[in-house]
């Protein structure tokens, strides 16, 4: 039943429009449908919303640091409201854009933090520059992210930050927290993978026999964004059928269309990942579990998650098929007693938790 689409209202709206008897809702339905068809013809069948006409990001911010790997932005705060506590540093994933955290008015995690009088900083990963052959995980985590900590201290006077990492960004955040425990006041991990799951489609896919990551990134010179996107589409093709139904059901409803369009823009706004960022992540975290065993090295130094010395909140989704609960919970066995780990399993999946 989840795939059954009722085209009756749209058909009636089209007939009414042709005969000049359409009401406002029916005219909006036909408008939304024809606009989406034009977008699909231009950008591909999986795209519904014109990215140039879809607003995303609601909170103003300023760039405060730029490295070859990233830019660090700071969200603007009212001058008459001093910030409370340690500044927050958000490390987002590398395979999508960060604006999912600041998507729409009333649907912005960043706005939630600002309303709590927190000083919020966000890492934006730099696009691939073919001339930069040094885009490596070692440099990103060993040099660029520590430079963000230094810049935040310079701007705020705080030696420590509250570190928030989402998905692969959470894995990166945990590595930084392990290598610089004195700089991290608390660590929040959201749907963060620490190994491949015991079962499920992502576990099946990341099996080295099916996913020779070194060969793939060597052939392309990077991990192509659309290869990631279409891989996930191929793993769960029926998601596109449920999305089609949601599209039809929201035609003519401007209030429902806004979040649908924003999420559609985000889900198709994929990012090429540098080869030597993606390859060691897949091999050391997902395939060999060297990170959990303390055998992974970043910038020549071993990564021991047992050195994390701050409270850790690990949040994961009960129905997350991308980062299954067992893949997120695996970090517990690598943390030491100083981490004060709390786990929080929430209903929902990888995206719905946001």
Please characterize this protein's 3D structure.
The chain is an alpha/beta fold. Helix content is 41%, strand content 17%. It contains 13 helices and 14 strands. The protein has helices at residues 8-18, 24-43, 109-115, 137-156, 168-179, 201-206, 213-220, 225-235, 238-250, 254-267, 275-287, 290-293, 325-329, and strands at 61-66, 70-75, 88-91, 102-104, 107-108, 120-125, 161-166, 184-190, 222-223, 273-274, 297-298, 301-302, 312-317, 341-346. Strands 1-2-6-3-7-8-13-14 form an eight-stranded mixed sheet, with helices on both faces. It is globular, with a radius of gyration of 22 Å. The mean pLDDT is 93.
Mean pLDDT across the residues is 93
Indicate the multimeric state.
single chain
Number of distinct helices: 13
Shape: globular
Helical content (DSSP H or I, runs of 4+): 40-55%
Straight-line N-to-C gap: 26 Å
Number of strands: 14
- Biggest beta sheet summary: 8 strands, mixed
Which structural class fits the helix and strand makeup?
alpha/beta
Biggest sheet strand line-up = 1-2-6-3-7-8-13-14
Structural Rg: 22 Å
State which percent range the strand residues make up: 15-25%
Low-confidence stretches: none
Order of helices and strands: HHEEEEEHEHEHEHHEHHHEHHEEEHE
